[in-house]
Amino acid sequence: MDKYDVCIIGGGITGCGIARDLALRGLNIILLEKGDLSVGTTGRSHGLIHSGARYAVTDLESAKQCAEENEILRKIAGSFIEPTGGLFVLFKGDNYDYVDKFVDGCKKAGIPFEELSGEEIIKIEPNLSKDVELGFKVRDAVVDPFLLTIANAYSARLEGARIETYAKVVDIKDEDIFYIQNGKKKKVKAEVIINATGVWCNEVAKLRGFEIELKTYKGSILVYSGRAVKHVVNHLRAPSQGDIILPHKKTTLVGTTFLEEKNLEKFKIYRHEVELLKKEGERKVPLIGKMKLIRAYAGLRPIVGKEKERGFTLIKKENFITVTGGKFCTYRLMAEKASDLVVKILGVKTCCRTAEEPIIPDDDRGFREEIKRYYKKYGDLAKKIIPYSGYRGKVCICENVSSGEIIFAVKELFAKNIRDIRRRTRIGMGYCQGRRCTLEAAITLYSNGFDAKEVQKQIINGLRERWRGIIPVFEESIKEAKLIEAVYSCAGNYNHIKKYIPGLVKFL
User: Fold this and answer.
1) Cα angle vertex 199, ends 196, 203, to 5°?
2) Where would a tag sit more exposed on the chain, N or C end, judged by fewer CB atoms within 10 A?
């Protein structure tokens, strides 16, 4: 039986951040994730690196943490971040009293800002509603949450950590952790166990014999094809639903909702949520009403304490540590505090290095000409794609993904199937939502040694995952939906997939 200093349960941004922190401190680490890395709340966020301004009025401590971590992430993960900048915008009819509270909160939290008139804002963000009266420019930014998580896991592995995906923990007894992987029950031993499972932290804590009180809230987000804004646009008001519009890759995201949700596995996005977000988005940016709405997705947020507070919590029970709550942009700080507690338990004297050392060492920027385009997508991970750059078959036209990227994701970035590959390469995330590239990716996998039956299964699962996001916006996507069905019915006799996809048969 394998024995480790620390076993981390959960492969979201916090778990992978902890793995990297502890691995850099020289500890022997294993991370167990029941699905793919970043498949939970992490991958269902909007990828916003907050300036802290959103919480300047309601949660000063979180605002300070966001502001500080924003600057650290720009330093250690700059290649993964798009420094869009952010705008907090007041529209006609909004409450002017909130402006003074906002300014006061930003000053107290040490958040830099620049006040702009309505005319100045329209000059730098011309698609905004002409009802803009004033606003503030802040240091918001956007990141790909999948890639930043995987980069942390990649870095941890370079330092000796063991990363195991599709490894569901089913029991914990003292230092023994039992998990199921590939249908087999396995066991590892660790002196310290970290529960970094987010909204699932109570389920894992029960395996250790105690419970954690928390509430979970659903945040739904709409995805539009094309970029309607250049900056992260925030509504200058008390945090509410539909406050944020941001550019992300080749899309525009509008979100989020904030609705209590008790079902952690099977939760729906309802039509009234879609309509609310559409209305809020079009009010702020009228152009959105003319853009193609391609899908919706939702994630669950764990809240410990008051609803308006977005701080994180550390809970220690003997050798079992739970870390939950917080924000995506404060993951590194959460990992540092959890890791500090680990080394204290183990009696090891080591210091945190993650605030200074780049996630992927910046040891070679001399990229060959043909892989420069990869840098914008993969950041410093692009250096690792060189051995696969000779595979140039086009898999995804919308997102410009090559067959080499598919192989790269499997060989280097922990991908096990088409859905995993999508999170790393963005195949199927563009305008056509996987109409062509799901099949092309499957062909690439089959050509590189994957079993035929497994590839067939992956096509079905890949389409199922895409349909989950299309169904909530079906009224806007029916033409594209019918075309996807026709393509897969004709190209591979996949008309039978309806029975695998709940909710699809009533539409098609």
Assistant:
1) 80
2) N
Question: Which residues are CB-neighbours of 422 under 8 A, at least 6 positions away?
Answer: 428, 429, 434, 462, 465
Distance CA 455, CA 439 (A): 9
**Taking 70 as the threshold, does the pLDDT of residue 495 lie above it?**
no
DSSP conformation letters of 314-347: EEEETTEEEEEE--GGGHHHHHHHHHHHHHHHHT
- Its pTM stands at 0.92
Cα dihedral across residues 165, 171, 176, 180: positive or negative = negative
Provide the token pair at 220: 């739904």
Choice between 224 and 454, residue whose per-residue pLDDT is larger:
224
**Helix (H/G/I), strand (E/B), else coil: 132:** strand
Q: What is the pLDDT of residue 221?
A: 96
In 3D space, the residue among 409, 412, 451, 414 whose CA is nearest the CA of residue 427 turns out to be 409
Cβ atoms of 243 and 57 within 8 Å: the answer is no
Q: Which CATH number among 2.40.440.10, 3.40.50.720, 3.50.50.60, 3.40.50.11260 corresponds to the domain 2-42+146-213+309-346?
A: 3.50.50.60
Q: What angle do CA 477, 478, 484 make, to 5 degrees?
A: 90
The first and second tokens of residue 14, run together, are: 């916090």
9: three-class secondary structure by DSSP: strand
For the chain, domain boundaries: 2-42+146-213+309-346, 80-142+215-299, 369-500
CA 135, CA 113: separation in Å to the nearest integer? Answer: 10
Give the model's confidence band at 496: pLDDT under 50 very low, under 70 low, under 90 confident, else very high: low
Q: What is the CATH number of domain 80-142+215-299?
A: 3.30.9.10
Q: Mean of the pLDDT values across residues 362-376?
A: 65
From the list 413, 497, 430, the residue with the least C-alpha distance to 461 is: 497
Residue 256 has pLDDT above 60, yes or no: yes
User: Phi and psi (nearest 5°) for 230?
Assistant: -100, -30
pLDDT in tens, 257-269: 999 999 998 889 9
Contacts of 72 (CB under 8 A, 6+ apart): 332, 355
Q: What is the DSSP letter of 256?
A: -
Which range has the worst mean pLDDT, 57-71, 206-220, 481-495? 481-495
